[in-house]
Structures are given as C-alpha cells and as structure tokens.
Amino acid sequence: MWEAIFWGAVLRVIQAALQAAPFLFTGLCIAAILHRLLGMEGTRRLFGSNSIRSLFQAWVIGMLLPGCSLGVIPVVKQMRRAGLAVGTIFAFALSSPLFDPLSLLYGLTLSKPETILAFALCSLLVVTVSGALFDRWFPQTETPGEELPPTPPGIKRLLAMLVMMARETVSDSMAYMLCGLLGVGLLSTLLPHGSLMRTMAHDNPYSPLLMTVIAIPAYATPMTAMGQLGSMFQHGNSIGAAFILLALGAGMNCGLLLWMLRHYGLKKTCVWLILMLIVVVGLSYGIERPLYPTDIQPADHTHAFDIYCCPFAEVPFGGYLAEIARRLKLESQVHELAGGGLMAALILGGLALRRLDPHRTVEAWLNQPPSEALQPAWDVNVPAPVLAAAGFVVILAGSIVGCFAYYPPPDETIAELNIARTEALGAALSGDKSHALHWIPICENWTRRLQVGLFLRRGELSDYHRMKARIFHDRLELLEHMLEDGAQQPDIRRQVNATSRAFSRMAHAFLKE
C-alpha cells in the first residue's frame, strides 16, 4: 500500500512538472523582459500606478499572456521588485493561469461557451474586489528594489536576459515552484485511487467547498483545467465547483502562497487568502443555478479528477518504475518534452553560473558599454521598451501559432484518433483491460481537439458536428464503464461495434460535411 502511495506521488509530480515546463519557460521569458528591458519604471507603467485601473490592467495583461500558476512566480517577483502593490501583483498572478489562447478556444467549443465567458468575468470580479479591499486595508505594500544599470544595446542585452533566466532557475523562485509541484504529490498521497469519481454533484451543496479544499494544493495548467471543466459540464457536475477548480486549481498553488507568506508576512497573507476565498466561493454559489445546463442528464460519476488521486489501485505488471516509465512515454506530449528540455538547459546554465561566477562578473561585463569604434554602422540602437513590446508580441503570437499546432486540421486529427481508437477497441476485444483504459481517455482528448481544430479554422462548430462528437464520446465512455465494471465479453463486443460505427459517422461528418 505504501509503495503504491509513494510511487503514485512520484508519478503525479513528474507529470505535473512536464505539463508545467513550457509555461515555466514562458514565465522566465516574461520575467527577463521585465527585468532587463523594461526595468522598474517601465514595469510600473505597464501595469499601472497601483489604482483600481491597475487591477483591470493587470487582469487584461494576465489574460493575454500564456502562463500557469507556477510560471507566474518569477514574474510576480519582478513586479514586487518594481514597487507594485499586492492587489496588482495578484490580479496578474490569478488571471494569467486561467486562460490562454489554447484553453480559451477549448472552452468556446463547449456546449455552453457563454459559461466560459461568465467565468472570465467572474475572475475579473475576484481580482478587482479582493485586490481593491486588500490595497485599501494595507495601503503601503509597495517595496521597490534597487534599479539595475541598463544593459547596453546589442547582443549583450539579449545575453543578459538569458543569464537572468538561467540564474532564476537556481534561485528561490525554483524552490517555490517545487513546493507547488509537491502539493500535487501531497494530494496523491491523501486521495486514494478513484476517490473523487462520485463527488462534485450539482445537487450537493458542499461540492464547491470540497473543491476549494482540493484546488488550493492542486496544480493544473490552463488546458488541464479547461479539459476538466469540459468533463464536468458533460457529466452535469456542479458549476460552482467548476469555477473554483478554474480560479483556485489553475490560479493558485502552494508555492505561490509560500512566496506571499515570506514577502508579506502571515497576517497579510491570511487576510488576502480569506478575502479571495470569500469572493470565489460566494460567486461559485451565485452562478450555480443560472449557468447550470438543463439539457444534460447528470452522470453518477466522472473521471475528471483522477489526476489528483493516487494513480495505482494495484501493483502494476512489471513493477512501479516500469509502469511510471511506460505512462510517461505514452502520455508526454511534444511541447511538454520540448519545454522540459529548455528548462533542463537553463538549470544547467544556472548551476554553472552559480558555481563558476558567484560574484556576477558576467553581468558586470554585459553592462559595460561597447566602444563606438567597434559598433557596426548597421547596428541600430532599438530602445529597450520597443524590444520588450516586440518580445510580448512574439510570446502572444507563439501561443496563437501553438493553437494551430495543438489543434491540427480535421484530417490529421482523425488520423491520430483512428490510431488511438484502434488501440482502445482492439484491447477491449482482446480482454486487455488496462491497455484499453489507457487509450480511451486519449481518444476522448483527440475528440475534443478535433472539435476545436474545426472551430479554429471555420470560426464555428455546428450543432450537427457537436452531436456526432458527443455520440462517439458517449460510446467511448460507456465502453470504459463496462470495462471497469467487468462486463461480459459479448456485451463488450457489441459496445465496441457501436463505438466503431459512431467513429465512422463522426469522421465522415468532420471530413465531408
């Protein structure tokens, strides 16, 4: 039992780290832009002047830039150094992880996209109300740091950003990020396998409160949280719990709380946390009935929250290490591995700088102005704020391009989905339950990406296409339940045939109609 708990926590932490890696790299890029290009004064101008307007400004910037609750830690560190108030800092910190172009597109293709827009407006209320009240009660939270000398124009300025990113990976920021990841492991040790399957029901008044307890130590990327929201909508779960999952599960983690505790003290941290919880939980109960979809039959259970529970119900074949390696190999996506590689390179660079250059002579050399005689005539001096704006545009454009890569055209998605379907249905027919249960969620994920990919390219997703995808999804889900409940093989064979027919009809609809 203890082996399953330990290795389950290890798997969950590694999975969360891989999911976070691209967002951590993006967060370091944003922090480097603020630190080396904008500076303290430019950062204050970007986010406003610690007023009500600055709360809205920080919320908008957070909604535009891709991030996660771990990736914002180096960013809020720079915001604090620039002398911004707590309300403004956390308006950005809470809004950036909630939505990005990938997750927003996903949400807009759900059966009730207005729910996602309502969630976005509710998040604005959360950061505005809690931030304004906190700044009113604690008006002197600005703690500006010492302004660094500007780095001379040219390649040195870009190198200075890279050096800053590398050093940040071996600083206290990384310690807070690791604490946030450990929260995922803690949840896995406390929640047995499948223990949340029958929770978060719409008719249970305690669902939002239970989700609050789970969401604070949890970590979820915007895409993960949006996928869970989609599953909750489809299964008729609590809308209030769904909003809390987005606001706290995606927007908060243990590392961010520890960062605030260290820099602002226990009293201010508790006041801010209580304020935010009152607003978030209050809104969750307020939107429960108005936003609940009346055309959905509530399901008696869901797998949306399995990622927070222990992944092992029994000793896997081949042992825990072999199973962890197998799952990571099958489930890790290309962008996660790329992000992990970039983060590993930065960490190695940071360790080398920390070991070989403890007195920061590299930064001193980078800050030395170049000789005018050595400066080429074509080397135009571009102002740092212009470069910063270009950097933000590149990050935003990269996330938009990533949408088209993550949500391929329907023909490519159907091809990938066909591979996953073959694996899942073939395993179900042969009696390989674990293999089938592994591939069915992958089929469901590709089905969602199929819908988003069509929406991205056509600007709409018809009810006809939604219905075809929904039928295939329901067939898959029923097959999953039959496998879990140990149904007879003839019944499974009939369900496999029905699922295969639903896939063929869905593929024809998305490719031909």
Overview of this structure, please?
InterPro entries: DUF318, UPF0718. Pfam families: ArsP_1. It is found in: Cell membrane. This is Permease. It is a multi-pass membrane protein. This protein is 73% helix and 0% strand. The longest helix has 46 residues. It folds into 2 domains: 361 residues, no CATH class; 104 residues, Four Helix Bundle (Hemerythrin (Met), subunit A). The protein contains 20 helices and no strands. The protein is mainly alpha-helical. It is globular.
Per-chain topology:
Blueprint: H1 2-47, H2 52-64, H3 73-81, H4 86-95, H5 101-108, H6 113-137, H7 155-168, H8 172-190, H9 207-215, H10 222-234, H11 239-250, H12 254-291, H13 320-331, H14 334-356, H15 361-366, H16 384-406, H17 410-430, H18 433-458, H19 463-484, H20 489-512
Helix pairs in contact: 1-3, 1-7, 1-8, 1-13, 1-14, 1-16, 2-4, 2-6, 3-4, 4-6, 5-10, 6-12, 7-14, 8-12, 9-11, 10-11, 11-12, 17-18, 17-20, 18-19, 19-20
Protein name: Permease
Keywords: Cell membrane, Membrane, Transmembrane, Transmembrane helix
InterPro entries: DUF318 (IPR005524), UPF0718 (IPR052923)
